[in-house]
Design goal:
Elements (H helix, E strand, L loop, with lengths): L1 E3 L2 H13 L4 E6 L5 H13 L2 E6 L19 H11 L3 E3 L3 H4 L17 H5 L3 H16 L3 E5 L3 H13 L5 E5 L19 H6 L2 H14 L5 H12 L5 E8 L17 E9 L2 E9 L16 E4 L1
Parallel strand pairs: 1-4, 2-3, 2-5, 3-4, 5-6
Antiparallel strand pairs: 6-10, 7-8, 8-9
Helix pairs in contact: 2-3, 6-7, 9-10
Bound molecules: pantoate.
Amino acid sequence: MEIWRAPLDFRRACDEARQRGARVGLVPTMGALHRGHQTLIEEARKHADFIVVSIFVNPTQFGPNEDFARYPRDLEGDAKKCAEAGAHGIFAPAPADMYPPGDETRVHVGATAAGLCGAHRPGHFEGVATVVTKLFALVGPAIALFGRKDYQQLKVIERFTRDLFLPVEVVGVRTVREPDGLAMSSRNAYLSAEARAQALAIPQGLSAAARAFAAGERRAGMLTALARGHVAPVASSIDYVDVADADTLTVLGPEEHTPDRVLLALAVRIGGARLIDNMVLGEDPIPLDTTAAKEGDEERHA
Ligand code: PAF
């Protein structure tokens, strides 16, 4: 497994792959890889010949009181997981490589980045959009894959890719869940056994709302109340439990009625970890209905 540290060495390797006629696929990550990331790599292999994984804990997407310093880092373990899943190389730069002295350009995305997590993490999506734009510029990927667990991030990336005419196909890949329904996340490593058990309230809450939705419930306030009813007893705080337009991410008021496809998303703190999860009601399988989960569910945008 080749590991590049310097951006220009990495760019050269990607250029050479393209000159050999390879279609280049990019899987951007912050490391501490899990099965969900491996699914992204496996999915990338179906659509590209040369798969690169970036592993970079991006400082510009963390707020001053967030977990940048303690975010889990394990390059050796990550390299093994990348190899297992069939990646060809890893880009693991240092912060000063991606943000050298004098760096002052940021990519700002509008309304798509404003609500949900954007309302609680000022500057977060600007940091994401900036680093992903830098990665796209270095790699020149034909395709880039992102997990749907970070649904707002996916929509923000789709938005600026379109707005800036970037020649990259952005693909969203289904959320991978543990057998008990908890969405896989690098931040699950922060959870004690007790908090891990409490976090099951998240898929339970989403599932309760999804069952009501399947039975015809369309009142936004009722759907969020069902999810909230599960998470409130175990969460130390709730940033939001919202329903929003699944494309624009405009949040619906409690009195509004939802269309037949709508995003239900939440961010809560349990046992010291900020956990997010979501599902598109009317589209995604119910988290605790394992029979409905399908391999390879993906959403593609040129
Ligand atoms: O989802 C992540 O791991 C990060 O936000 C990303 C897309 C790699 C940008 O740093």
